[in-house]
Amino acid sequence: MKNAQHDEMIHLLRNHRSIREFQQKRIPPDLINTVLTAGQAASSSSHGQSYTIINVTDDEKKRLLADYAGKQTHIRDCSNFLVFCADLYRLEQIASLNGVNLKEVIESTEMLLISTIDAALAAQNVAIAAESLQLGIVYIGGIRNNPEQVSELLELPYRVYPVFGMCVGYPQPDKVPDSKPRLPLAVVCHENSYSPFEDVYPEIQEYDEEMRDYYANRSHGSRTATWSGAMLDKRKVPRRMFMKHFLNQRGFSLR
Amino acid sequence: MKNAQHDEMIHLLRNHRSIREFQQKRIPPDLINTVLTAGQAASSSSHGQSYTIINVTDDEKKRLLADYAGKQTHIRDCSNFLVFCADLYRLEQIASLNGVNLKEVIESTEMLLISTIDAALAAQNVAIAAESLQLGIVYIGGIRNNPEQVSELLELPYRVYPVFGMCVGYPQPDKVPDSKPRLPLAVVCHENSYSPFEDVYPEIQEYDEEMRDYYANRSHGSRTATWSGAMLDKRKVPRRMFMKHFLNQRGFSLR
Fold it and tell me: Which UniProt keywords apply (chains A, B) (predicted)?
């Protein structure tokens, strides 16, 4: 690969932005399959591939999922709404057919981590593949607002849970937002040992000002939050406190 | 981006293989920073960036981490060993400085998911960025064999836990393995609802034969397992059953 191509890939990765305004245009099945098989190429723990993607193309299901996720209309408007699920059901079925009892292992918190991470790594490959084909994506954690309804709608069996969704579609060219600044590298990446908070706090404060400008520009001056302020506003309302119970009910992390 | 470049990107994603044999050559700091900032560009829940990467370059620490992960010498031999951590400490510190009490929220299983997924999405971007620069990577779940020792060595505070590691370095050109076949797309990707197991099982059986050939080739005939067989062998030994207790002790998923 030539240097110019390396630069293009790094540029593509750094150029990510979440797309929430889509054209009314369907992605051809061949193209979405290209994206999905690129997703499959991500690593998985012990090559277990402990995830399943539900590719939602049905309009009525997308409309319901948009409601479940808190009236996120881009779920309805995108071409394909992908629901990434952690999946230990497939393994348990294979075990059962082979007379192996994996109940204790499958119910471990370790297997919750493995299957959740497998789903996330595949998803990020899907995101990059889609963006390289000039499609737009946005992750939807909001499906965890109503995970039971989502599971029922998609007929997820016991030992499968919906981790997050992803809208995929053709972006409306005039509605692509600016890319959002990230925390300074020194805040999120430390060398050899964890940096004391007081060492990174000045850089968080600088970033707070950068994000204040970003939010102000994007809202034409109406939003004055810093990053820290926006985070605290977001997190101080307890949300999805049912998650432990939900996961346990679906057969995850019981021990 | 031109079509040829789209193809390059999809090819790059599909061409992933885990590298465990590295040249004794250090990655220049500028180059690793390019990789890490590309990692930062991944999405995170509510833009919270709830992860920290410990970039381990110290030889003694790499040697110890190789032991903790079960004598994985590639951790010692790679240029940079990146430890991806879920991080709720940063948020709690910011909250505390602003007089906000986030204890209940931070201790939720939902925040375990958010921070673990944030770390995983950043990691997969790091993997793709590294591979686009012709570096090799391998994920290391093995650091969860001894997460307390890893946490202590890297001085991780309460509310931070090591999710997985990643070796990054220059591959030994004659020791790059073949890429591993994935499950047929129809097994891991279902349209509109979860496919019954009996519908996908024949494809799993075909894949079992494909993987039997793959393992046999790679081992010069000494390994005769199928994928299902290898998975059951791997999973039937309960591993890391302490994970729930460990996470609770580090302040995660307490409610």
Answer: Flavoprotein, FMN, NADP, Oxidoreductase
Smallest CA–CA distance from A255 into chain B, residue: B244
Q: Search chain A and give the residue with CA nearest B52.
A: A188
What is the distance between the alpha carbons of residues B79 and A77, in angstroms, rounded to a whole number? 45
Asked if the Cβ–Cβ distance from A37 to B109 is below 8 Å, we say no
Using one digit for the tens of pLDDT, what is the confidence trace for A93-147? 999 999 999 999 999 999 999 999 999 999 999 999 999 999 999 999 999 999 9
- HSE (CB half, 13 Å, CA atoms) of B118? 25
Same domain assignment for residues B196 and B164:
no
Q: Contact B10/A180, CB-based, under 8 Å?
A: no
What does the pLDDT read at residue A4?
65
Question: Which residues in A lie closer than 8 A to residue B98 (C-beta atoms)?
Answer: 228, 232
Asked whether residue A3 is assigned to any structural domain, the reply reads no
By CA distance, what is A132's nearest residue in B?
Answer: B6
Whether A124 and B129 lie within 8 Å, measured CB to CB: no
**Structural domain tally of chain B?**
2
- Considering only the beta carbons, identify the residue of A117, A129, A232 that sits closest to B120: A117
Tens of pLDDT along A50-95? 999 999 999 999 999 999 999 999 999 999 999 999 999 999 999 9
Among A10, A55, A182, select the one facing B191 at the smallest CB separation.
A55
Q: Are residues A36 and A80 in the same domain?
A: yes
B201 CB neighbours in chain A (<8 A) are: 93, 97
Q: What's the CATH code of the domain at B60? A: 3.40.109.10
- List Cα–Cα distances, A197 to A106, B114, B204, B211, in angstroms: 37, 21, 49, 48
- B218 with B132, same domain: the answer is no
Query: Looking at chain B, which residue has its C-alpha nearest residue A184?
Result: B37
Domain of A196 in residue numbering reads as 185-224
| Contact yes or no for A10 and B38 at CB 8 A | yes
- Statement to judge: residues B109 and B35 lie in one domain: yes
Please give the Cα distance from B177 to A43 (Å, whole number): 14
∠ CA(A121), CA(B75), CA(A118), 5° rounding?
Answer: 15
Q: What is the pLDDT of residues B136-166, one digit of tens each?
A: 999 999 999 999 999 999 999 999 999 999 9
Contact between A9 and B227 using a beta-carbon 8 Å cutoff: no
User: Chain B within 8 Å of A2 (Cβ-Cβ)?
Assistant: no
Q: How high does pLDDT run on average in chain A?
A: 96
| Predicted local confidence at residue A3, as pLDDT | 64
**Nearest CA among A168, A171, A172 for reference residue A54:** A168
The pLDDT of residue B2 is 55
Residue A2 scores a pLDDT above 80: no
For residue A60, how many other CB atoms are within 10 A of its CB? 10
Q: Does any CB of chain B come closer than 8 Å to the CB of residue A59?
A: no
Residues of chain B with pLDDT under 70: 1-5
d(CA A97, CA B204): 12
